[in-house]
Amino acid sequence: MSSAAEITDMITSERMAAVDVNAEALGVPRKQLMESSGNAVAQAIRDIAEPGARIAVVAGRGNNGGDAFVAARFLDAYDLSVHLLGRAETITTDIARENWGALERGEYDIEEVRDSTQLSLPDADVVIDAMLGTGVTGALREPAASAAEAINASDATVVSVDVPSGIDADTGEAAGVAVEADHVVTFHDDKPGLEGVDADVTVADIGIPDAAELFVERGDLLALSRDPQSHKGDHGTVLVIGGGPYSGAPALSAQAAFRAGADLVYVATPESVADAVAGYSENLIVEALPGDRLAPVHVDTLLALAEDADAVLVGPGLGDAEGSLDAVAGFLESYAGQAVVDADPLRIVPEVETDADLVCTPHQGELTAMGGPREDDWRDRADAVESFATEVGATLLVKGAYDVVSDGERTRVNRTGNPGMTVGGTGDVLAGITAALVTALDDPVQAAGIAAYANGRAGDFAVEEHGYGLVATDLPPRVAEALWGDRDE
Ligand SMILES: NC(=O)C1=CN([C@@H]2O[C@H](COP(=O)(O)OP(=O)(O)OC[C@H]3O[C@@H](n4cnc5c(N)ncnc54)[C@H](O)[C@@H]3O)[C@@H](O)[C@H]2O)[C@H](O)CC1
Ligand SMILES: [K+]
């Protein structure tokens, strides 16, 4: 679990970037957020400086600077000048460039600073530090470094936009020189890195709807951007323990795990169906277990196989023979890694003592069989599932028209999918995606949320072509597109 997840009322820059994109997906574009950010900065200035005071804006070429270009338009009552560190054509985003353009056309007192040693601030009453915010990487480079020195050397009151330039928003560290702010106006939520900053911090609401944090949307997919240097095995080895009465379910889960980015997928399945499972795809590596049902005698073999996996998926097609459920209980009692539990074994989870990091993927009927709540309204279900997740001590992904994901602390809701997905096998696909993503992310709630989102989107793509005649095998080929494609609906 990432450390920031434990700081419930703050937000890391990675999550902020995701929430930003989710807001856009919900119809609140970034430029609107920038307008609100700038307005909040201007409000802070009005609270500390009298009209007519001399305000100097020192702006960078990213959206942090963009916020201050917006603020300038709300500060016409002041003697304001804007100093851009660099050439206007190198401003890095459209929304910042458009706001700079408004200052140019509005004949504001603006300049492009070529050499920051020429930056003159001596007579400013207030300096707005809008050089860098959450986009900073490493120690401040020129011209920002000299500009930070000049700001710190001035007698002006310093108001930093979002984060004092040079400070890392997540850690609070400054790799080099950083602006010493008197005030900080940060946006949407407090930032972990501001804890240790000796300034008064205002957290400004910039109109990001709560839904941008609650619902899983395309911003959450940013978490899956991969380290290009990764090599085989970095992106997850998954062991699927399934089959026995059935052979299709474990194969569906295994295929889905591949499409969600797993590098290697092993399937441990009774020998009675091992050939059938292997026959579905050359990609599958099938380990045959003696007999025709999973049994307690297999537990040691499963634990040995699990040693080589980053996550285990237990359940698809296992059936509910008592011996099979006992085998799952025996496996979980000794296994301490990441496990996704689906289908029949779900009902035994509440009685099993395990050190494994569990993600359970029940539909409503299986949730009830686990002793879980039944609520028809999705909001009530989200609250009830959050409480039950604490009781079970696992991350729950409760499938429904609105999927609910919760570990008892953080709760997400997924709205993708359609009624065509009630067809058998889509749960096996979702379980396989979930197993692959828990190996790719160190955050089971995020992994399960994205899995539900991708499974539903794959189903939405499939229903375009097959209507409600879609079948589960239509989903895996569309999962990769749902996660990494650029279809925009
Ligand atoms: N939802 C929100 O939180 C919103 C935040 N807004 C503001 O956007 C900035 C983040 O903007 P971004 O463009 O991503 O990055 P920055 O402007 O912070 O900086 C990028 C800029 O800086 C250069 N750079 C990076 N590291 C260094 C360095 N060590 N030295 C010098 N220069 C550096 C980089 O090359 C870029 O040019 C956030 O803080 C908020 O202020 C949005 O306005 C609205 C929504
Ligand atoms: K700043």
Q: How would you state the average pLDDT, rounded? A: 94
Intertermini distance: 31 Å
Number of domains: 2
Whole-angstrom Rg: 27 Å
The biggest beta sheet reads: 9 strands, mixed
What CATH calls the topology of the largest domain is: UDP-N-acetylmuramoyl-L-alanine:D-glutamate ligase
Please give the CATH architecture of the largest domain: 3-Layer(aba) Sandwich
CATH superfamily of the largest domain: Ribokinase
**Shape type:** elongated
Cofactors and ligands: ligand LP7C6HRI, potassium ion
Spatially, the strands of the biggest sheet line up as 10-9-8-11-12-13-14-15-16
CATH class of the largest domain: Alpha Beta
Number of beta-strand segments: 16
Task: Briefly note the structural class of the backbone.
Answer: alpha/beta
DSSP summary: helix tally: 16
Strand composition percent? 15-25%
Q: Please give the share of residues in helix.
A: 25-40%
Low-confidence stretches: 1-8
In short:
Helix content is 38%, strand content 16%. It is α/β, with parallel strands linked by helices and 489 residues long. The strands form two sheets. A nine-stranded mixed β-sheet has the order 10-9-8-11-12-13-14-15-16, sandwiched between helices. A seven-stranded parallel β-sheet has the order 3-2-1-4-5-6-7, sandwiched between helices.
